[in-house]
Amino acid sequence: MTVRVRLPEALHARPANRLVRLAQRFTATVTITRGAKQAKASKILEVLALGAATGDEIELAATGDDAEAALAALTELVERGFLGDLVPETGAAAVEGIAIGRALCVGEAAADDDAAAAGEPPEVRAAGAFARARASLAVLIASLSPREAALFEPEVQILIDLEAVVLARVAEGEAITAAILAATTAAQTDLIQDARSRLLEGLGAKAPDPRLALLTVDTVLVAEEVTPSLVAALPAAVVGVLAMAADDAGQTTGFTSHAAILARGRGLPLAFFPSYVLAQIEEGELVVLDTTTSPANVWPSPSEALVDSAKQRRALRATELAAEAAAALAPLTHLGVVVRANLSSLSEPLPPGAEGVGLLRTELVFAGRATAPSEAEQHAAALAIVTRAAGQPVIARLYDAGGDKPLPFLPSPPGQDARGMELLFGHPTVLATQVRALGRAGARVLLPLVRGAGDVEAVRALAPAGTEVGAMIETPEAVALTGEIARAADFVCIGTNDLSAAILGQAREKSALSRDPRVFRLVAEVVRAAHAAGRRVTVCGEIAGDPAGAQALVGLGVDALSVAPTRLAGVRRALAAATKDDCARAARAAMQEG
Ligand code: PEP
Ligand code: MG
């Protein structure tokens, strides 16, 4: 089976690449003949070696099961001028969305050597770079919303630690840029890359791209490196970002990077592509980026039809998102329940509709620390979240270490596997410091795996006056003591994750979401006893993030739910759509076997 086509464009690297990638989708073997030369259509070096020029005629021949389809697709690709509509380049999505704009390609400016400021002692020059980096970070933080500014707080500390390392290297005779690069190569967070970029700018070895400030048309940024500061400083004209994947398979998602968190907060689609994809995109050409699919797609120089269909998908998505957001914000007064968010890090934003933080897992916020964070650091962290919650309550749990969440600074006594309050009482200084820090910041303090009223009274004695103290009921033993625990506490929270694991005899690491009726019956028991003591009840285990589970919990009389941020909108929508009777029915069904 053969077809002859005339080339509207020479088979140089980009069209050849598209043709090869399309040919690779078929099992048929396709050969291309130009004059006396022949090439396999799936081999880019052979296709390039054809040397085919604009206007040349080529013959496509295919054998195999899908030969006809392969020839039809390849012919269409050639006849449509290799527009790329048929063969989008693929990458990994970090932030979902659809962007249409002109490409602006910004490269990593090569770091200069240290000759620029000859005459100035290197230590002085390095110290100057740090001073400028600190100042530029302070300016950036001051220009951002509290939520975005909080993301950059760790960078202040990173610069302090880097300064000591870099100045020591420079004092030993290392060039400044080399010392900065060496000190920042093992970047476990993109804030270290951010600090590196900022230092190179402070040194004059790198400068922000001045074209960014002058953009007037919708622009898709194509960048080798996307730092959080770059995203934070992007003008509104930038409607999407293509960044270089760390690996050429394009697998890097950077999904939880600070740059992605910032981009997500701004609704800015972001995806990572292999370097050869970025290299193909030409400055100023129109680009369609769609990261709502997996893999993410980019079409450089798309046809008008493709742009129109992307615009339609974008408009539809905006309508759907607006409807979802409105549904998530609808008040739940008809059920008398509030929904809060569970947070595990300082950088997680509070999702729209969250009525405060129902569980701040401090053991995860400070995971990876060899030593206990100081009172000042914990106070600053808690205060940042209290500020972000803007008047809504923040319930910060004392370190729930041990088990599958060990903390190096809270070891269990030898031979024991203590967790929760039992473990904390073995480390009285850590406990007292944390209770003070959280209470001073205005957070409510929550006791993990409470064992009895005595635990609550002991913590209350350590807390600043007026601090609200809550107790987490997470074991069948604590359920049986709910009455006395509730009377000692200001509120009660049920940890259904641990409670389910205990009831089902499962290790937490291996546990799955369970709607075991026994757990719902224990919830009902806690609600009865706590309400009899005049205390409100929250559920913050994963079952609260399950829309059906949430309805059942509300039917059992739970006053507040606290769920993972990504679950919040779904739970609120499910509750907004349910009546009290629906919830009561769901509760009865949840407590029944089978
Ligand atoms: C729980 O046990 O339900 C709970 C919320 O605490 P964690 O999952 O952190 O143990
Ligand atoms: Mg628990």
Can you offer a commentary on this structure?
The structure is a single chain. With about 600 residues, the chain is α/β, with parallel strands linked by helices. The chain has 4 domains: about 1-85, Histidine-containing Protein, Chain: A (2-Layer Sandwich); about 90-105 and about 210-320, Phosphohistidine domain (Glucose Oxidase, domain 1); about 115-205, no CATH class; about 335-590, TIM Barrel, CATH 3.20.20.60. It is built from 23 helices and 19 strands. The strands form 3 sheets. Strands 12-13-14-15-16-17-18-19 form an 8-stranded parallel barrel, surrounded by 7 helices. Strand 8 (about 240-245), helix 9 (about 260-265) and strand 9 form a beta-alpha-beta unit. The longest helix is centred in the first third of the chain and has 26 residues, at about 145-170. The mean pLDDT is about 90. The site of magnesium ion (MG) has 4 residues, from helix 19. Phosphoenolpyruvate binds next to strand 13 and helix 19.
